[in-house]
Write a structure and sequence with these properties.
Elements lengths: L2 E6 L6 E6 L3 H14 L4 E8 L5 E6 L2 H14 L4 E7 L3 H9 L6 E6 L3 E8 L2 E9 L5 H11 L3
Antiparallel strand pairs: 1-7, 2-5, 2-6, 3-4, 3-5, 7-8
Length: 152
Amino acid sequence: MPIHTIKLDNPQALYVVMGQIPFVKTAEEIHAALVVTVPEIKFGIAFNEPAAPPVVKHFGTDETLIELARKSAGNIAVGEIFVLFWAGTATAGVMNVLREVSEIQKIYCATTGSVEVIVVDSTHGRDVMGLVGGYAREEERCVQVVKRRGVF
């Protein structure tokens, strides 16, 4: 079974969430909940339908973010995956909205950082094995950051 990594394109260090949901209706519920709860939010969400041929449903309030989500979900190419990008709104507010959507099965990541998605191809299809995020640890840099931030 071939295993691949796919970089989740986030050129402007935007907020991004990748997760798993069972139906496009759930993506529509996420859209409605965000618009109602965080009216000023600018976002794009895309959902990979687990159908043949594959279809990427996409919507939101900002065309650039919608296109970024659509391209990212399409590149991952795993059914039942959603990708949500947003800008200008605190992470806590959006994550609280997502927690209220009971059909969300899994949140793989919520970050502004760099992410690579590990996928596996099999005779039955394709699925997410996990993610690699953040940056490689550099001992000297870590020591400097701890000195600057102080001890918890």
